[in-house]
Design a protein that fits this description.
Elements (H helix, E strand, L loop, with lengths): L6 H35 L30 H13 L4 E2 H8 L3 H9 L1 H4 L3 E5 L2 E4 L1
Antiparallel strand pairs: 1-3, 2-3
Length: 130
């Protein structure tokens, strides 16, 4: 593996590694200096700080989402496409009408929608029933 690397590339890697080590030494010296200044003025270091626990609160009375029954999305989509008629409907329109994220609809049409007889793609993100 190392036989395939040209010597110029190895020299460059050595040069970059040495440069990185010099920079890391400078960073360590800056850290030591910062600790000296913090200790001089009584500033607590960040490592000793106790972090507050993070809590996530839900809005009271917010919508509770329940999982739909199996096949419910299919029925909603077919009903919406029937009402759209021959012109069909775009995924964006269906998303607004059915109150379903458009990403869910794209996935549905790409997977389940392919095996549903009667659904035809008539344009970019546009579908209709035959």
């Amino acid at each position: 593996m190392l036989r395939d690397i040209p010597s110029s590339a190895l020299k460059e890697l050595v040069r970059l590694t040495e440069h990185k080590e010099r920079l890391m030494a400078q960073i360590q010296e800056i850290d030591r200096e910062m600790i000296r200044v913090q200790n001089k003025f009584g500033i607590p270091s960040r490592e000793s700080d106790q972090r507050a626990p993070v809590t996530v609160s839900r809005s009271p009375g917010g919508p509770i989402r329940r999982r739909s029954k199996r096949g419910a999305l299919k029925e909603k989509i077919l009903r919406a496409l029937r009402s759209a008629g021959k012109k069909g409907a775009t995924v964006g329109d269906l998303s607004k009408k059915l109150k379903v994220p458009s990403a869910n609809l794209y996935v549905w049409f790409n997977g389940t929608g392919r095996s549903v007889p009667g659904i035809k793609k008539v344009g970019v993100a546009k579908y209709r029933l035959r």
